[in-house]
UniProtKB/TrEMBL annotation:
A GO CC annotation given for this chain: membrane
Cofactors that this protein relies on: a divalent metal cation
Database matches in Pfam families: PDEase_I (PF00233)
Higher taxonomy: Eukaryota, Sar, Alveolata, Dinophyceae, Suessiales
Gene3D superfamilies xref list: 3'5'-cyclic nucleotide phosphodiesterase, catalytic domain, Voltage-gated potassium channels. Chain C
Protein name as annotated: Phosphodiesterase
GO biological process annotation, one example: signal transduction
Enzyme class: hydrolase
Residue ranges annotated for the PDEase domain, each copy included: 471-818
Length: 854
């Protein structure tokens, strides 16, 4: 069933309701308006949204807004003679404003129509009418009967201009959404950024509107105040009128004297003429009409006319008007700077107070969700598709908040995962105290042999640069195969789990090790002579008297690593250096091993335990000896690596070898279980694809998960540790040989413990240990938890688990038939039940179920 089948109350998907009486049918006239409007919206809506969000259209509208704001004042500053060309430009700008209004109304009717920005756009478009001269006649002469009336008219005109600019500034407020932290946020930005963006946009818009309203409203209070103006123009008219009526003979002289008063003024009378030119006093007629030697105004709107009883005096106010226009431009720029500055200040304040703490919290939630449940990506896609269907006409709206619940919905799924993970990490140890208490003494002895002090290294592994694969791998592989054949080894044997280094001589073991470490298996170039020296010196570094931890075990472990890398297609998720480091680490992972475990070294205060503070003394010693070998020029197999590559390889080698300490075993099991649980759906879906090698490319999501640095580090450690204890997963003939070898080494340590008078570890007493029974316990409590966890993320290892279970049955039969004291029927039943339980867990792993939940 699709997600849409579950609809919330009030949503578009409703459950069926009982049939109701059908309403009377509408006639064609009643249907037509709604259907026509709906048809227009459906047809033109997508195109309108595309236009609105087109960057070129947005740029054009921004340029149009700047033209609407500044052109009227620039025309005054430029002293254009008329406004005809300005009217054409402003008319085009008005058409663009109206077009934008219509496009947004059709494209985003639910989020835009009748919204705040709709009314602001409408006001901005209407404000253009105040600057169109063919509507307001703003380029005609300004006149009046008195000076006070003229001043009020001028002030009212100025307020009208500011009002027109303010109307357009409301459109500028809309452009604030393009500032950092404002406007639309991508779907994947998260709740914190969505909330912060909308909060910042709301505050910035309202702050901008407040600034605009103050700019527009504050001058209004001066309209009714007593005008503080220069009364000289009216005095000029009064003086000339008095002279005209009382001393016409002095009119010309008086005109020159009064005119000189304006020589240092930015405005001046440029023409004096009689009201009635047909009835002018003869003594005045010679002086009229009078024209100033200074220029006449080009723009008619720069002429201010003052009239008297007989005279008309025209003043040139070009300079004051230009200064006024400059001040308007500066005012517009200051308002713009204030809008942007306060918006950015608000943005920073909201970011520091709200966004950063909330984003840190919710980002951790999102990252945890992606880490804990990788398949949540598919859920998000489904959720977004459903949400997109419900808001097709407002998908890009600034008012859209449909993504606010993403993290909440993810958390609902994540919590289910956390319940399982917490069971693994906290509530359910691999072997808890109750389980240990219920075990027989022999089983506890097996586990105690694996106890030790664990070391925890949580340092993140950086992938680094990969080496370019410039080698001719085919030629190298052919040469290696020829060398193998000359040594009497077959590829069928090497590419199977039937190889037993104990059955090979020294020369063939050396050749086999050379083949496992060959460049065609990892892609890193090295000198074959140097590699030969390294292997020979590594062999010499192993203690020959050790029954188990000797050179043969090193070759056997390297072979197991080689097989695991090959069968799990590790080249798809591990780097060249990681695979090279893993193979080399297998060669030296037990070099210098004295045949005594860490517990014995600590108990006896051995030199190694003192040197390494009781923390994995053997494993630390193996790492040290390995890099002592590499430090010699004749054995420096890392000489072809760059400094950075050597650092990465050294880090991988140390990590992998230290994790062969059996004290790390149960922690590793938990880590692998955790990696599976947080991506359970992904692994289960990719399981069959992994098992089919030709379909491996289809399991890309699982491979991408394995490519993560922490995943790669875990896989590297897992492969080496699995190879180290892989004897129980090999054919029973080989598995039994190695079991006898390791038990003999345990017994030799037990003999040494008895001689030194220290407690003899239970598994080391040759007189009490039942060898077949101990191997069943070893498989049940140590090997099976690891391989069952491993096959969930590396399904190709499944056949190893099958062989392990077969070996457990073989050990069961040998225990029943070859023991000194035949077991009772009840003991047989109990052991059989334990093996059945392992087999059931294996089947659960095959079905993609967690054993604890089945």
């Amino acid at each position: 069933m699709t997600p849409k089948a579950f609809a919330l109350p009030g949503s578009s998907s409703r459950s069926p309701s009982p049939p109701a009486a059908a309403p009377p049918p509408l006639n064609a006239e009643e249907k037509k308006p709604d259907s026509l409007l709906l048809h227009v919206r459906k047809t033109l809506g997508p195109y309108c949204r595309q236009i609105v969000h087109n960057r070129y259209f947005q740029l054009a509208m921004f340029v149009a807004l700047l033209l609407a704001l500044f052109l009227p004042d620039l025309w005054v500053i430029a002293d254009r003679p008329h406004n005809d060309d300005l009217d054409v430009l402003l008319t085009l700008v008005g058409v663009l404003f109206i077009f934008e209004l219509l496009v947004q109304s059709v494209g985003m009717p639910k989020s835009y129509l009748y919204s705040f920005f709709f009314w602001m756009d409408l006001l901005g478009a209407a404000s253009l009418l105040l600057d169109l001269s063919y509507i307001t006649q703003s380029d005609q002469q300004v006149g009046g009967d008195t000076v006070s009336n003229n001043v009020i008219i001028m002030r009212a005109a100025r307020v009208a201009k500011l009002g027109a600019r303010a109307g357009r500034f409301t459109k500028l407020a809309k452009l604030l959404r393009f500032l950092p932290g404002m406007g639309n946020v991508d779907d994947g930005a998260g709740t914190a950024k969505l909330i912060s963006s909308k909060l910042i946009t709301a505050l910035s818009t309202r702050t901008s509107c407040l600034i605009i309203l103050l700019v527009m409203i504050m001058p209004l209070f001066n309209l009714w105040a007593y005008p503080e103006e220069d009364w000289s123009p009216s005095s000029f008219v009064d003086i000339m009128e008095t002279t005209y009526s009382r001393a016409p003979s002095r009119f010309k002289l008086q005109l020159a004297e009064v005119t000189s008063f304006y020589e240092d003024k930015s405005y001046f009378p440029w023409r004096v003429r009689a009201k009635d030119e047909s009835n002018v006093d003869p003594e005045v007629a010679d002086a009229l009409p009078w024209l100033s030697p200074r220029e006449a105004p080009s723009r008619m709107s720069n002429t201010v006319v003052f009239t008297g009883g007989r005279l008309i005096v025209e003043f040139n106010f070009m300079s004051p008007n230009q200064l006024d226009a400059w001040m308007n431009v500066v005012l517009l720029l200051v308002v713009m700077v204030l809008m942007i500055a306060f918006s950015l200040i608000l943005s920073q304040s909201v970011s520091s107070i709200v966004l950063k703490p909330l984003e840190q919290l919710l980002t951790q939630v999102r990252q945890m969700a992606n880490t804990i449940f990788r398949s949540v990506t598919d859920m998000e896609v489904v959720m977004k598709e459903d949400a997109r269907d419900d808001r097709s006409d407002q998908e890009d709206s600034t008012e859209d908040s449909s993504n606010f619940g993403n993290e909440t919905q993810l958390l609902a799924k994540v919590v289910q995962k956390l319940a399982v993970i917490s069971e693994i990490t906290m509530n359910k140890p691999v072997l808890d105290a109750q389980t240990l208490q219920n075990l027989a003494e022999g089983d506890r002895a097996v586990i105690s042999g694996f106890q030790g002090t664990a070391t925890h290294d949580t340092e993140f592994f950086d992938h680094g640069e990969e080496m370019e694969n410039v080698l001719d791998m085919e030629a190298i592989e052919l040469a290696q195969r020829a060398m193998m054949e000359n040594a009497g080894l077959s590829m069928e044997l090497l590419d199977s789990w039937n190889l037993n280094p104990l059955e090979l001589d020294k020369a063939r073991n050396h050749v086999a090790a050379m083949y496992f470490c060959s460049s065609h298996n990892h892609g890193v170039e090295f000198d074959s002579v140097v590699m030969g020296n390294f292997l020979s010196d590594a062999e010499a570094g192993y203690v020959k008297s050790s029954p188990y931890h000797n050179w043969f075990h090193a070759v056997d472990c390297t072979h197991a690593v080689y097989r695991l890398l090959l069968m799990s297609a590790a080249d798809t998720f591990l780097t060249f250096q990681e695979r090279y480091a893993l193979l080399v680490s297998a060669v030296c992972h037990d070099i210098g091993h004295p045949g005594l475990n860490n517990g014995f070294l600590v108990e006896t205060s051995h030199e190694l335990a003192l040197r390494y503070n009781d923390k994995s003394p053997l494993e630390n010693m193996h790492c040290s000896k390995m890099f002592e070998l590499v430090g010699q020029a004749r054995c420096n197999i890392f000489s072809t690596l760059s400094k950075l590559q050597y650092y990465e390889v050294r880090k991988v080698c140390i990590e992998a070898i230290l994790h062969t300490d059996n004290a790390q075993h149960f922690t590793m099991v938990k880590d692998v279980q955790m990696l599976y649980e947080v991506n359970a759906e992904l692994w289960d879906a990719s399981r069959q694809l992994f098992l089919q090698e030709e379909e491996l490319c289809l399991a890309q999501e699982a491979v991408d998960t394995l490519k993560l640095p922490e995943s790669r580090k875990l896989i590297v450690n897992l492969i080496l540790h699995t190879a180290d204890i892989s004897n129980s997963m090999k054919p029973f003939r080989i598995s039994r040989i190695w079991a006898w070898q390791v038990l003999e080494e345990f017994f030799m340590q037990g003999d040494a413990e008895a001689r030194l008078g220290v407690p003899v570890q239970a598994l080391n007493d040759r007189n009490t240990v039942n060898r077949p029974f101990s191997q069943v316990g070893f498989i049940e409590f140590l090997v099976s938890p690891l391989i069952f966890a491993a096959l969930r993320i590396l399904p190709q290892t499944e056949h190893l688990a099958v062989q392990m279970l077969m070996n457990a049955r073989s050990w069961q039969k040998q225990w029943e038939n070859e023991g000194k004291t035949p077991p009772s029927d009840n003991d047989k039943k109990l052991l059989n039940e334990r093996i059945l339980k392992m087999e059931n867990k294996f089947r659960s792993c095959q079905l993609g179920k967690t054993p604890e939940r089945t």
